[in-house]
Specification:
single chain; 359 residues; alpha+beta; Jelly Rolls; seven-stranded antiparallel β-sheet; three-stranded antiparallel β-sheet; 14 helices
Amino acid sequence: MNPAAPSATDIDAQWQIARAALEQGRDEDARVALTELLRLDSSLFIPRLHLGRLLEEAGQFDAAVVQYFGAVMRAQAKGRWRDEATTAPALRASVLHAMDVIDAERAQVFRRAYEPLRAQHGDAPLARVDECLDIYLGQHQVVYPDPRQQPKFLYFPGLPATPYFARELFPWYAALESGVEEIRAELRAVLHDAQGIEPFLKFNTAEQAQGYLAGTDAPPNWDAFFFYRHGERLDANCARCPRTAAILDALPLVRIREHAPEVCFSVLTPGTHILPHRGVTNVRLVTHLPLIVPENCVLTVGGEARAWREGECFTFRRLDARRDADGLLEPAPVGDRARGRESARGRDRRLQSRGRDRG
């Protein structure tokens, strides 16, 4: 449980505790402190690099590879550790060592992670999992059956490139839709108070933001009030919206460490457009429950436009034929004005557990 989103002060204080333990050679204390620090903020890559080293030195090699890999991926996503110029001199040897370990061992680490499933079910049922891993590791050339479905991080073969999904697949829609008036009332209270609202996307530079958002009449803004973020339940936010939280707690939410569930009130300010973009993977669906919808707003997925209707759930996979990419999502105005939207946003558990049918 996470009672509230950690403050920058909390994160900095925990980092100081971890650094002191590292400097004093108290490895076990440092490991515990770094683990807690990453629980507070999983995006931190330098502490994750240190944790990888401690785990490697303790003989926990598979766990070390996971942390090294996570550190490098997070750093490079922020433009760091791409070359000498983007790597601090004091860290270069450690970063290069982490990369060497990753290159040598990550394939086997990943395969060992699902070896118990292979022992239970055999090779044939895991053939697509093997192919997915080979594609991810660059050991297999992918051929996309549908040019709209080309995710930028993880491609799982054999899943249909379906833009929108039939309501009958999601019996839990009824719980959300029956509570829409209560959910909307709690949303209005959140918007009035404004506490707990934060940017849905965080950028290091203004240039990065320009690739995702655009505005017609004013600077674009996409905010969120999270009930779950990166798999952590934000108890303070849930307490402010008890009826919404109770409905969410009764849903079959997927549980993936540091990734899911992720559920929020999503808020676009007047005139904001989310530009066409790729999703990270084709094994994830997105569900919207529109709560406050201005006129002339539409969502375009895989070249198919759909208008939001208040109180009516729908689920989609991010596709767009115009960019030949999986994951292209473009909320845009039908006419000249788009005044924004607010919606409850989540992910389908059955997607994750039954990707063969509903990826």
